[in-house]
Amino acid sequence: MCCTRMSMMNHICTALLFTAFAQSPKDANYDESKVGNYTLPDPLKLHNGQAVTAADIWRAQRRPELLRLFATHMYGNSAPKPAKIEYEVTTRAAKALGGAGMRREITVWLTGKRPGPSMQLLVLLPAAAKGPSPVFLGPNFGGNHAISADPGITLAKSWLRPGKGVENNRATKDGRGGEASRWQAEMVLKQGYALATIHYSEIFPDHKDGLGDSIIPKLYRDGQTSQEPDDWGAIGAWAWALSRALDYIEKDKDLDARRVAVLGHSRLGKTSLWAGAQDERFSIVISNDSGEGGAALARRNFGETVERINTSFPWWFNANFKSYNKRVEHLPFDQHMLLALIAPRPLYVASAQEDLWADPRGEFLAAKAADPVYRMLGTDGLPAKEMPSVNQPVHGTIGYHMRSGKHDVTAYDWEQYLAFARKHWGR
Ligand code: GCU
């Protein structure tokens, strides 16, 4: 109302508007001395206070308890796995990427029924494979065609994020290869791995009104018409779809379903962590610059905060999570426990030095705080006492590096992931 009164007031309105958007990346806290004191909940203590002293207590009690807590208070409860998998291989090309690989495109019907909602899975396989190939699987932002300039990849038809769409993509006019530097397909294939991807938008268009066009209402329980406070949001849906892609991988004899690494960048790194935490079929889990709501500790006031992420992206998490905006210390977990849910499977957390919004130190500290669970389960955890210097990767069962540069996925990151996979999977 004040805005309509007189022009003098416009100044005040502008100022108020600015305050409403305060705590943007620009004016968040980036001062280590202002992070505040916090106490992390102990991953090796049951909610009732009992110590988790052995692997069987972890498996039978603490792991299910933590999964329930994360689902209830943050990512939401997902729909169950469809009763059966329904898919069709629509492209089977013996030559892709100029001969470096083979291409497969698969329609996966998400409710297990056709016709029905579906997603397109793209799989690039190494041309020289001598047996089932281990797979790197992740969701993409710009459509399957954005991960490589290979002209045979079907162009995405679903909603494209502004700035990520065909009209704006960098590589070619139609957007082919717009994200190629983030996927390094040639490098991955050359080392004998397959690369598989889905377009996240087909599962949940990433905007505030995306729910209606997402998979979520299509999987409502009998009689359900709206979201419950502990129901899944976009991250839950994207993570669930990665498990549906894995259902297909299990059916393809040219792919090694026991060696599938799930990975993602940024919001999709949050997604790969939640997918890997829930679905133990993922044998390696990789988080690239996942930050708040991903690998970074929520209790540290550094870079993005719980309140900020819930305000900017309310559709990513469930409604219950919003109640922690101003009382993050009451969360019954912190993100090190999400990382611990991946134990004892290999986990890689990667940060970028200039990506302060994602809190690189908070990501390292979470990985470090997951280490006791990894060790209790008989692995070497994260073999680093202090945060490693820039570009000094540490590869234990937990891997960590902080790359120089900004928020992105680069060839350097991929070199580390491939070396980490070789270490854990063998050649
Ligand atoms: C925003 C958001 C982050 C997210 C990132 C991304 O910066 O605040 O939480 O990781 O977008 O997904 O690119």
Would you give an account of this structure?
With 427 residues, the chain is of the alpha/beta class. The chain contains twelve helices and ten strands. A hairpin with a 4-residue loop joins strand 1 and strand 2. It binds alpha-D-glucopyranuronic acid (GCU). Residues 266-267, 291-292, 304, 309, 312, 357 line the site of alpha-D-glucopyranuronic acid (GCU).
Please outline what is shown here.
The protein is of the alpha/beta class and 427 residues long. It contains twelve helices and ten strands. The chain starts with a helix and ends with a helix.
Question: What key attributes describe this structure?
Answer:
binds alpha-D-glucopyranuronic acid, ten-stranded mixed beta sheet, 2 domains, disordered N terminus, 17% strand, 427 residues, 12 helices, globular, alpha/beta, 10 strands, single chain
Number of domains: 2
**In what range is the share of β-strand residues?**
15-25%
Mean residue pLDDT:
92
- Please give the radius of gyration in angstroms: 21 Å
Q: Cα distance, first to last residue?
A: 67 Å
Question: What is the number of strand segments?
Answer: 10
Describe the secondary structure blueprint for this structure:
Blueprint: H1 2-5, H2 7-20, H3 55-75, E1 86-96, E2 101-109, E3 118-126, E4 133-140, H4 180-183, H5 185-190, E5 194-199, H6 234-249, E6 255-265, H7 267-278, E7 284-288, H8 306-312, H9 319-322, H10 335-340, E8 347-352, H11 360-376, E9 394-395, E10 398-403, H12 411-425
Parallel strand pairs: 4-5, 4-6, 6-7, 7-8, 8-10
Antiparallel strand pairs: 1-2, 2-3, 3-5, 9-10
The chain binds alpha-D-glucopyranuronic acid.
